[in-house]
Write a structure and sequence with these properties.
- The complex is a heterodimer of chains A (about 300) and B (about 325).
- With about 300 residues, chain A is mainly α.
- Chain A has one domain.
- Chain A is built from twelve helices and two strands, in the order αααααααααααββα.
- Chain A has a two-stranded antiparallel sheet.
- Chain A starts with about 30 loop residues before the first helix and ends with a helix.
- In chain A, about 45% of the residues are buried.
- Chain B is α/β, with parallel strands linked by helices.
- Chain B has two domains: about 230 residues, P-loop containing nucleotide triphosphate hydrolases (Rossmann fold); about 60 residues, Alpha-Beta Plaits (2-Layer Sandwich).
- In chain B, helix 5 packs across helix 6 and helix 8 packs across helix 11.
- Chain B starts with a helix and ends in a 6-residue tail after the last helix.
- The relative contact order of chain B is 0.15.
- Classes of the chains: A mainly alpha (about 300), B alpha/beta (about 325).
- Chains A and B meet through helix 1, helix 4 and helix 5 of A and helix 3, helix 4 and helix 5 of B.
Chain lengths: ~300, ~325
Amino acid sequence: MSTTTDRPGAETATGPTPGEIVRVTVPKRSVGSELRAIKIVWRRELIRYRSDRLRMATTLVQPLLFLFVLGSGLQRLSSAGTHGVSLKTFIYPGILCIAVMFTAMFSAASIVWDREFGFLREMMVAPVRRSSIVIGKCLGGASVAGIQGVIVICLAGLVGVPYAPLMILGIFVLQLLLAFSITAFGVMIAIRIKQMQSFMGVMQMIVTPMFFISGALFPPSGLPGWLAVLNRLDPLSYAVDPMRRLVFNHLSISPAARAALDPGITWWGWRVPSLLEAGMVVVLGLAMLGIAIWQFSRTE
Amino acid sequence: MTGGNGNQPDGPAIVVEHLVKNYDQVQAVRGVEFEVASGEVFGFLGPNGAGKTTTINMLCTLVKPTAGSASVAGHDVVRERDDVRRNIGLVFQDPTLDGYLTAAQNLQLHAELYGVRSDLVKPRMEQVMTMVGLWDRKDSPVATFSGGMRRRLEIARGLMHSPRVLFLDEPTIGLDPQTRRSIWTYIRELQERERITIFMTTHYMDEAEWCDRIAIMDHGQIVALDAPETLKAAVGTDRVTIHTDDDDATIAALKQRFDVDAKRSEGAVTFGVPQGEQFVPRLFAELGIPIKAVNVSRPTLDDVFMSYTGSTIRDAEEDQSKHRNRVMMQMMSGGRR
């Protein structure tokens, strides 16, 4: 009754009768309409991903280089330190995180593209909450990154990681959480940035250090003091660590190798449990989503 | 309850009272006032940087006014932002389509964002796309469309949710004359079929003739507002343009011998006289300076613009573009160019 029913008959029309104009009405905002908005923004990300096969390939190049080239190349140097475990196997969980992270950041970058190509305005003027747009974007980016993650998960067998169903399920869920949090992080940054070039610069400045410090390529124990501190502060560390623990749970290796390669992240000698680590990733992701929504609602 | 005043189709579609917008030190819009009746095609005319886009952005709730008030479709643009948004369609100066998606997907997305009832999406889409002649291209990616096709698709998209007021910001900018003409045909046809109010801006004088009423804007203010014919009739003089070798001497001579105030404009000397045809023979006989070419024309909207602002729209643009670049940059942030 409070909707704009200034076009009588709109609700009863069922199809276009020739010569008659199909009138539609825009309903008041409701939970349903917000969910619909979230869904369509999410779907758009997937449609775009599907039509952009090049992006699919390019974001995989770097992680795969690390995994197969660096992993094979450094193998001889490091075989003593890895207690016979292949370096590729060791870095695999970290590389999975990196692949997800790069894709998630690229997905978040689409906000900057949308702004540059004007499409953002189309969404900004729609009668929906800004939060719906941000949530849809984050879910879309997370889904796209999750799909990339699945591709890397499929490669597990090539680096000596078994296809144990429980482990696969575990790392699948973990990488989804990571994908969501990183997308939220990326969106939070992308909202403030007007040009793609600047976004790429910021990404280089933030993402690359995060990746190196996270321990994706080395075990987080026995590090020099400064690096140990940075490693504990890097949020990505808390995604890599539980991922690695999960994978190592399903490897048949000596206890010595396990202790050397999967020491886990410790806070003053206390080993942080996986569940807490995963929880931190989620909480951080939600916090950044909150900030992103807040920022996006303020932009004109 | 808020739907109350929005339900009167015959009330004014747009009411603007003393609207002001300042960007830092620049006054982009300085207190404009006007009303647009329901079903009217209303044009905002003026050089680039005159404040047209800022005004339109305030009306469609994209920019908050510094002072003053405005209501669109019966809803206040600041306090009832959502109600305004549900009732308006927008076609921006810069393209806002997603080139990766097909034409139909772009419209579908719009319908979902506006909450159009699912079973009405398809029929409505067919209708608006047929109207702009793009129904057979509905499954092509927008990236493959020409500039004119994109603009037509944007107009179709703006209509997807049956808005009461359609805002068109420079709908024909950058298009070739033929496409411009066809866009105008669509707009007029649209206004007749859907009975919606159209508010548009343009800086093409000839296009303003298509409007029921026009407001001429210059330096952030409305300097004239009426039907194009009335405005032209009010000028009352014919425009004479002459080319000579010495413009300064010609202007001086015109003042001295005929008491006519002439101006230099676009490389010629131009002035207004009541009866142009009768004046020309006297001009040749008495000016004393050789005339290379002469042109007499009935008043056009250019003359209307000139009589109110003292310059042609093109001169005004060159003039203003220097001062207003900053404002334009802010307004078009996110624009491609």
